[in-house]
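yo, 2-octaprenyl-6-methoxyphenyl hydroxylase is done. seq:
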Amino acid sequence: MHKVDIAIIGGGLVGASLAVALQAEAKQRGWRLCLIEPFTPGAGYQPSYDARSTALSFGSRQIYERLGLWAQIGQRAEPIKQIHVSDRGRFAAARLCAEDEGVPALGYVVENAWLGECLWQALDPEVVQWLSPAQVVRMQPLAEGYRLSLDQGDEIDCALAIMAEGGRSGLREQLGIQVLNSPYGQSALIANISCEHAHQGQAFERFTEEGPMAMLPLEGQRCALVWTRASLEAERLLGLDDGAFLAELQQAFGYRLGRLLKVGARHLYPLALNAAQEQVRRHLVVLGNAAHSLHPIAGQGYNLSLRDTWVLAETLLQSTAPLGDLATLQRYLASQQTDQSLTVGFSDQVTRLFSTGQPLLAAGRNLGLLGLDLLPPAKRWFARQAMGLGTRAEP
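structure:
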């Protein structure tokens, strides 16, 4: 058994970002951190056509700039200079432009492997201990923290446990943390697509009666596809050969990028809105997808988790109370409550509105898109939501 001050359960993007945000001040305070991760990171970044990607908002760029990481992350970050929002079969569309918002990009698309590599390289081994492959199988509350039992038999005592192991966390149930689950009855089909024409920094949000889809710009003439369909229909699309799949995708998306030439490996993810009913307890914080997982079409899930991570780190570092103090953790959650409520609501309502074929609602959203493009205040509000700045004061 050994002791640490903060144990971060899950060394993925959220957990690693928290460790980087804490480590400089932790070193000065003599805190010891450990990251516990079941999957050992690869030996260096390896480019891949089929790499999964994350859409980082402009607000997330600002966080990584404060952490001193953006110069490296930005080397392989494809900027989103415009977002084109349309409703198939209807005339209205909305266009958001980075230039109109006075920013270099509305967001960026970054391969997960590259983002992870940048984070892992930034970890200070004098402060952050990396335990991998390792998995926490049991959490026992103690008077001054938690005892973590690992799958290989080791035990770790910590003053503060951060549960950041993803949306399928078994530890939440073990601790009796209830999860609100609202299935969408949809699955997201994820793949990378090569296109005839260059995307020129455009991201496309396309809404159809069968469900929403997004095409996000990647390096070269590639896009990251997020195609949401009813679960059985998504399974059918997954089973098509490449030619038949591209033909159906072309019909649904149109020819804004010319012909769709190649599709990479396809992956399918069932979709639901999940929210932990407790995010903090004494000596415990639930973070990332373990706290809330959103529909991917609005691209807000990871960005919200990163904002949570940043505010949590700031709150811990500003506090003079012992680690795990409940009032400190409640102060963090109160600081993020509005952001979480607005972002979750925005993502959920947009998804449900644009996933219906009911004529009155379809006509209403068409008028909404038209109004969004014609009314600058409405467009600016929508753009700030997309950029992850919706709950922050004007610069």
